[in-house]
């Protein structure tokens, strides 16, 4: 599973490589743009290793009480959840949303969200500015361009 | 000395396939029930935050306890050198593995997260009796498998005695571990007693011997193998002693509790006014599963009847399930005493007897475990020569006939 | 194989600096409803919990009134324990227990929650180490490695744990909960790690009941330690010798 995900990441990095590694009829994942300028780690590192970061942080937090924000799942949600037209948060594991978009493509099941919240606490609170900034159409090609363009 | 010849089941009769299909169907239904429980969550069962271990645990603990006891027949032959039991040692080992697998599967399928079994195999807390038991159960399967190999393979026959002794010691430790799951629960008044471990060992001998008797008579009958009265007489006498010993330990357990005033509440609940638990204890466990079998087995006239012996053994099995039910469910139904001398009330059922009704999925899962155990046995007996061709009263049994010869007759 | 390793990191200069820096930051950022618990022991967020601390709670039953559920409500809100109208399977981390002395008829009302034992039976029996005690004395479940065997619920003398009997949605970010695992009061570990008091304590204090005092039992000068010296108090099921972190006054 990881190898496939890495392959997807590699395809992004190589720019034109995806036509080789994926059948043409499967649309590439186009996760929505996050809030803020950049992720806590370089994008390609994140694509390949986000699960390792989360796993490490999970044990540090649960057993040793270390609550740094850098690799915290709650902080992932803060930046990566989108809001709908009415300003309500969309669960991050909903189709087309940040986590689910890539995971559906790579066929990797997430079980984080059987327990963990899928959106920040107050659904009612509206971040209209950031919602407007981040395109809400997940399949929009410009998103992909922005994601790819984000890499250092 | 007549060599013992073992032979596989032909497995071609309509009866065999009927039994096979029936067992497979019940097993499949049990699995479907577990799947239903897992998908929906445990709220579809009778289990609650008060009764956290329900009917699946009753069946699982019963099977696991019986698995260790059923090996006793082989132990008597190998470890204690009684040749009369030797022809049955293979069957004893097979049923031991089959029952343990059936019980463990039920236990695992009732976990909140059965798919995390690999976590249980990779993260260990060595102070936990459950963690010990994971090693004890897996080790038991290996030890008995090696023991069976020693018995099957002529070149290894000479090692079957030491292997039998290891298996015998292992099963003692294993049942001590199972009993200690309850015996070390200091929080609950119905448990927290060192006598739990020896009581579980004697229960295992009783339940195991009873199941062995029923399976023995049934298989010999259905496969038209001659079965002498001699071995049945020995086994039914053994069973009688074990049933009496279980009754004795039950009395000792409750008398000890009754002497301590702090346990009067829970004892009153179990023995006098616990409703269904009191009824199950006295009527099914003690009378039907204890006293009636004793009367049958010790009666010189009645116990000559093969049907009567099978009936007595069946009653012991029913009584055993009842006993485990009273221990596990009855023990939890009585509320924890947080503040002695005070009446407690809360929204979390403090101070009240906890209600529990077994749900259909739980029962189906439990019965599915029994069916799986028997299915394993039925398949194994067809594949490998576990059963002797015959077991007449006459001659004492000598060495096993060469396996090659047995295998050839099987074809 | 893996187990929770208690913190053994020695206190260094860096640590002290971070403690002071953290304390200073906390002082500056004190907001309404946020109370600094133990100023001297404030910990930098990248530092692990210390075994020199032991979080504890004193319940003053003389100040706890029958019918008041402020602590319970706050807990339910904090952890998103909405309940599904099935009281026998719905989770409760903290509950109000009414007591009546069978001889004298005297009544009490008090909250019962995880007692955060020093030698916790739930920790002993857990086969995977999911039920564990943090270095600073908080007993909690690592739900990532809980297999849902419920042995801890059998072992707990206080009935402090609940099993999640169905799929959940809309969990709150700071309190992950999911079907098939066991859970219970964790002293609002996510708040304590950020120098806030547990939700129940905060609610009780805000409502001016003052029946709950939270703090560091490992520090003789903490408000809790002083209160524990001042008021006679006892442990529930003290006969078991578990050295609980929750103490009761007035029963």
Please render the helix and strand layout as text.
The complex is a heterotrimer of chains A (152), B (411) and C (251).
Chain A: H1 2-14, H2 18-21, H3 43-64, H4 73-80, E1 82-83, E2 89-90, H5 98-106, H6 128-133, H7 141-149
Antiparallel strand pairs in A: 1-2
Chain B: E1 2-4, E2 6-7, H1 14-40, H2 55-70, H3 72-78, H4 89-109, H5 117-122, H6 129-152, H7 160-183, H8 196-222, H9 229-259, H10 264-273, H11 276-298, H12 306-333, E3 342-346, H13 360-383, E4 387-388, E5 397-400, H14 403-410
Parallel strand pairs in B: 1-5
Antiparallel strand pairs in B: 2-4
Chain C: H1 13-28, E1 55-60, H2 70-79, E2 94-101, E3 107-113, H3 121-125, E4 131-133, E5 139-141, H4 151-155, E6 161-163, E7 182-184, H5 189-192, H6 199-206, E8 212-216, H7 223-230, E9 246-249
Parallel strand pairs in C: 1-9
Antiparallel strand pairs in C: 1-8, 2-3, 4-5, 6-7
Measured by DSSP, the beta-strand proportion of chain B falls in under 5%
Largest sheet of chain C: 3 strands, mixed
- Helix segment count of chain C? 7
Helix and strand content put the structural class of chain C at alpha+beta
Kindly state the number of beta strands of chain C: 9
Question: What is the CATH architecture annotation of chain B?
Answer: Up-down Bundle
**Termini separation of chain B (Å)?**
25 Å
Strand order of the largest sheet of chain C: 8-1-9
Fourth-level CATH superfamily of chain B: Formate dehydrogenase/DMSO reductase domain
Q: Please state the second-level CATH architecture of chain C.
A: 2-Layer Sandwich
State the name of the first-level CATH class of chain C. Answer: Alpha Beta
Rounded mean pLDDT score of chain B: 93
N-to-C SSE series of chain B?
Answer: EEHHHHHHHHHHHHEHEEH
Count of the separate structural domains of chain C: 1
């Amino acid at each position: 599973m990881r190898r496939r995900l890495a392959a997807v990441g590699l395809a992004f990095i190589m720019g034109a490589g995806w036509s080789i590694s994926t059948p043409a009829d499967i649309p590439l994942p186009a996760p929505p743009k996050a809030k803020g300028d950049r992720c806590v780690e370089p994008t390609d590192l994140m694509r390949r290793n986000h699960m390792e970061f989360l796993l490490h942080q999970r044990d540090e937090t649960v057993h040793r009480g270390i609550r740094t924000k850098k690799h915290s799942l709650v902080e992932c949600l803060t930046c990566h959840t989108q809001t709908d037209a009415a300003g309500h948060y969309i669960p991050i594991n909903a189709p087309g949303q940040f986590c689910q978009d890539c995971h559906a493509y790579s066929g990797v099941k997430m079980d984080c969200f059987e327990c963990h919240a899928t959106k920040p606490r107050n659904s009612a609170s509206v971040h209209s500015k950031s919602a407007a900034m981040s395109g809400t159409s997940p399949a929009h090609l410009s998103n992909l361009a922005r994601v790819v363009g984000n890499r250092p | 000395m007549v060599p013992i010849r073992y032979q596989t089941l032909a497995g071609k009769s309509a009866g065999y396939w009927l039994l096979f299909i029936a067992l497979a169907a019940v097993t499949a239904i049990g699995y479907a029930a577990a799947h239903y429980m897992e998908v929906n969550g445990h709220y579809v069962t009778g289990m609650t935050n008060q009764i956290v271990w329900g009917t699946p645990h009753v069946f699982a603990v019963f099977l696991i306890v019986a698995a260790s006891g059923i090996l006793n027949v082989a132990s008597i032959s190998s470890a204690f050198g009684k040749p009369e039991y030797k022809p049955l040692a293979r069957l004893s080992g097979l049923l031991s593995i089959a029952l343990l697998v059936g019980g463990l599967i039920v236990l695992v399928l009732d976990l909140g997260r059965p798919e995390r079994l690999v976590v249980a195999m990779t993260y260990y807390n060595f102070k936990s009796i459950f963690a010990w038991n994971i090693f004890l159960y897996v080790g038991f399967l290996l030890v008995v498998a090696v023991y069976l190999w020693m018995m099957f393979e002529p070149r290894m026959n000479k090692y079957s005695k030491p292997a039998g002794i290891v298996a015998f010691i292992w099963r003692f430790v294993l049942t001590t571990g199972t009993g200690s799951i309850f015996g070390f629960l200091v929080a609950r008044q119905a448990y927290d007693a060192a006598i739990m471990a020896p009581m579980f060992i004697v229960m295992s001998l009783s339940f195991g011997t009873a199941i062995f008797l029923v399976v023995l008579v049934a298989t010999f009958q259905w496969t038209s193998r001659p079965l002498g009265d001699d071995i049945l007489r020995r086994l039914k006498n053994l069973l009688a002693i074990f049933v009496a010993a279980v009754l004795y330990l039950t009395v000792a357990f409750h008398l000890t509790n009754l002497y301590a005033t702090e346990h009067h509440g829970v004892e009153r609940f179990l023995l006098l006014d616990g409703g269904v638990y009191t009824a199950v204890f006295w009527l099914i466990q003690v009378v039907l599963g204890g006293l009636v079998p004793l009367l049958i087995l010790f009666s010189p006239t009645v116990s000559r009847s093969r049907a009567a012996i099978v009936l007595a053994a069946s009653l012991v099995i029913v009584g055993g399930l009842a006993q485990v039910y009273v221990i596990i469910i009855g023990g939890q139904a009585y509320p924890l005493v947080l503040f002695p001398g005070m009446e407690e009330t809360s929204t979390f059922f403090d101070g009240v007897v906890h209600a529990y009704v077994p749900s259909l999925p739980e029962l189906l899962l439990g019965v599915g475990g029994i069916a799986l155990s028997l299915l394993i046995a039925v398949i194994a007996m067809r594949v490998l020569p576990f059963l002797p061709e015959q077991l007449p009263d006459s001659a004492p049994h000598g060495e096993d006939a060469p396996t090659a010869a047995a295998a050839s007759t099987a074809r | 194989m893996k187990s929770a390793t208690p913190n053994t990191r020695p206190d260094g200069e860096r640590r002290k600096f971070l403690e002071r820096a953290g304390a200073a930051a906390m002082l500056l950022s004190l907001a309404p409803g946020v109370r600094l618990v133990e100023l001297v022991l404030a910990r930098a967020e990248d530092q692990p919990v210390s075994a020199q601390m032991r979080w504890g709670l004193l319940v003053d039953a003389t100040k706890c009134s029958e019918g008041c559920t402020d602590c319970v409500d706050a807990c339910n809100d904090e952890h998103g324990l909405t309940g599904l109208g099935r009281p026998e399977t719905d989770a409760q981390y903290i509950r109000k227990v009414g007591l009546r002395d069978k001889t004298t008829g005297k009544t009490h009302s008090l909250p019962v929650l995880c007692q955060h034992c020093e030698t916790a039976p739930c920790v002993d029996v857990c086969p995977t180490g999911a039920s564990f005690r943090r270095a600073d004395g908080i007993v909690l479940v690592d739900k990532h490695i809980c297999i849902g065997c419920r042995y801890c619920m059998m072992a707990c003398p206080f009935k402090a744990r609940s099993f999640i009997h169905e799929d959940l949605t809309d969990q709150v970010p700071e309190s992950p909960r999911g079907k098939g695992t066991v859970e219970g009061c964790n002293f609002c570990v996510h708040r304590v790690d950020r120098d806030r008091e547990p939700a129940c304590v905060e609610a009780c204090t805000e409502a001016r009941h003052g029946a709950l005092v939270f703090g560091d039992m490992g520090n003789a000068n903490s408000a809790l330690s002083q209160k524990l010296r001042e008021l006679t108090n006892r442990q529930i099921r003290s006969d078991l010798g578990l050295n609980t972190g929750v103490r009761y006054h007035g029963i």
